[in-house]
Task: inverse folding
């Protein structure tokens, strides 16, 4: 889907992921972007080049077959692709006033600068903040919102010589293609970060739609950033688990948000029985080493109240999605149910209200439940987590999880 939409673009591609690997899949996508730039299409790419390099270094040790990230950036640059690293989310406080004035003189809109004012106040330690969003906009007409980065382990079909899906080297993930006005709003989110981080100023309201209407499905964009205040993505989950009228299925790889667990543990049995959680509890290849501890330390009370828990086992699931069956709505994007996403990172989810789309997602989630082991014994989880060493370690390290 990604390669197809890149090929179809005629005017511009705005491409943002946190990690852009310089492996087979990464170069396949980078080459497709480079070809469009050579055709005259405006291509802007934003990724966390620092974190991509760090992760690649770690994965070379694990023999994931990565290559030189600088070569990938050089490929894009030589083709005319504009690249901005999203590695630094804020400026030094003593430089911001001068940089802000320079950006304003350059033509960066006031609302983008005002958002960065809040970020500047909200970031305590820049090295602990990530732009975790994953959005790609094509001509302002279509957009891809995903939970996956670009690399072999997210697109395991592209890995040469690897056939078994149970090795832990491949991840279960996804993306959704959206067409219509929502793409323009997503483009504005991209533009805000792009311009503030030093990219060129462009008309982010441009779109080249081929249809007046793309249907009646509703799409709402939820975003969050590290300003230390209310997180609307988090609030959606907290409100929904307390008020959903039917089954609410959550599949998420990293569930370690203290407030989420607190609300889940406080549900009355009738409401708790509506909640279903799918998590790669003990799956191979899970990159959050304390995922198992997080579940063991927090799931006992919700389980006893009636929350269903499915341990996805085929491979690591990086999918971050929720389905509200009664409202026929899907909530999907980059957001993890952990402390990082709630407090530190830039995140973006979309709420899609669509009967047909909900049917598709329901089939996928039910397949994931079939590929899971449903936990049926409360003894799987710690009865007294407060005194358990792994729970103490979990609490001590949540700021950097």
Result:
């Amino acid at each position: 889907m990604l390669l197809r939409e890149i090929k179809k673009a005629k005017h511009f591609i705005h491409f943002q992921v946190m990690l852009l690997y310089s492996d087979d899949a990464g170069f396949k996508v980078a080459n497709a972007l480079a070809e469009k730039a050579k055709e005259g299409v405006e291509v802007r790419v934003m990724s966390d080049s620092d974190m991509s390099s760090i992760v690649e270094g770690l994965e070379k040790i694990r023999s994931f077959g990565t290559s030189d990230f600088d070569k990938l950036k050089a490929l894009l640059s030589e083709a005319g692709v504009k690249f901005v690293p999203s590695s630094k989310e804020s400026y030094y406080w003593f430089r911001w006033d001068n940089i802000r004035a320079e950006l304003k003189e350059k033509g960066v809109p006031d609302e983008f600068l005002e958002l960065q004012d809040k970020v500047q106040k909200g970031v305590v330690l820049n090295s602990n903040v990530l732009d975790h969003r994953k959005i790609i906009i094509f001509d302002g007409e279509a957009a891809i919102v995903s939970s996956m980065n670009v690399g072999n382990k997210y697109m395991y079909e592209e890995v040469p010589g690897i056939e078994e899906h149970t090795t832990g080297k491949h991840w279960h993930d996804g993306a959704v293609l959206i067409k219509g006005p929502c793409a323009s709003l997503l483009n504005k989110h991209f533009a805000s970060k792009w311009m503030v981080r030093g990219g060129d100023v462009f008309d982010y309201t441009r779109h080249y739609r081929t249809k007046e209407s793309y249907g009646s499905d509703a799409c709402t964009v939820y975003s969050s950033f590290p300003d230390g205040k209310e997180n609307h993505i988090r609030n959606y989950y907290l409100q929904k688990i307390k008020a959903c009228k039917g089954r609410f299925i959550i599949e998420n790889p990293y569930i370690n948000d203290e407030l989420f667990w607190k609300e889940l543990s406080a549900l009355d049995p009738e409401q708790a029985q509506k909640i279903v959680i799918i998590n790669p509890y003990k799956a191979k290849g899970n990159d959050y080493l304390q995922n198992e501890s997080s579940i063991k330390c927090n799931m006992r009370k919700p389980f006893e109240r009636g929350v269903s828990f499915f341990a996805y086992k085929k491979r690591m699931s990086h999918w971050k999605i929720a389905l509200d069956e009664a409202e026929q709505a899907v909530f999907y994007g980059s957001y993890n149910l952990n402390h990082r996403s709630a407090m530190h990172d830039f995140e973006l989810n979309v709420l899609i209200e669509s009967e047909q789309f909900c049917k598709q997602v329901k089939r996928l989630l039910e397949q994931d439940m079939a590929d899971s082991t449903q936990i049926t014994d409360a003894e799987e989880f710690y009865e007294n987590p407060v005194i358990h060493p792994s729970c103490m370690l979990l609490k001590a390290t949540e700021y950097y999880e």
About this structure: The longest helix spans residues 355-370. The longest strand covers residues 218-224. Confidence is low (pLDDT under 50) at residues 61-67.
